[in-house]
Amino acid sequence: MDALQEKMSGALIADQRKEQLNDAKLRAVKQRSDYDEFCRIVAGAHLKPVKPCSRESAQISKPFEYFVMPKYEQPSESTPIGPMPAAASQFVAPADIAELARACTECTVGRASTTQGRQELELACTVLEDKIAALQAELQLTQQRVFPLHEQLRALSAQQEDSKPRAQCELTLAEQQHELRVAAEALSAR
Question: Dynein attachment factor N-terminal domain: which residues (predicted)?
């Protein structure tokens, strides 16, 4: 009886493998794969498909995540606490916008995580705000000087137009053209 049962289970397993191989071959032909891919598909026919794991198995296989406080070190006496005055003495104000953009990119990308990088960036911003305020004040002074001159020029041009009527200007132009014609005729007659 045991021998018969073993033969039956062996026959079932062989039948399952034959069916799996046949399914794999049909799947490979349907996918129109090349010969190497076909061999891989047929060779892996007996493998079980990967199924997503359940929540329970995910929790079991999850590695232990622990929290460790970082080691606290007392600041040494040589490390200054507070703002760094050395950064202000080393800082050079940017000359134009391109230089400012480059400096800001360097500070934010390279050293934004450091205290010194943040301080340099803040210092650059304050210097630029001061420059912008100075330029705005200079612009206002220039406008205060230029606008009265513009108004004076406009008034002078209006006075000149009022002092000579347009018809009189056209008359003098016609007289000058007539004199030129007479002079040209005199020259051509000689």
Answer: 2-56
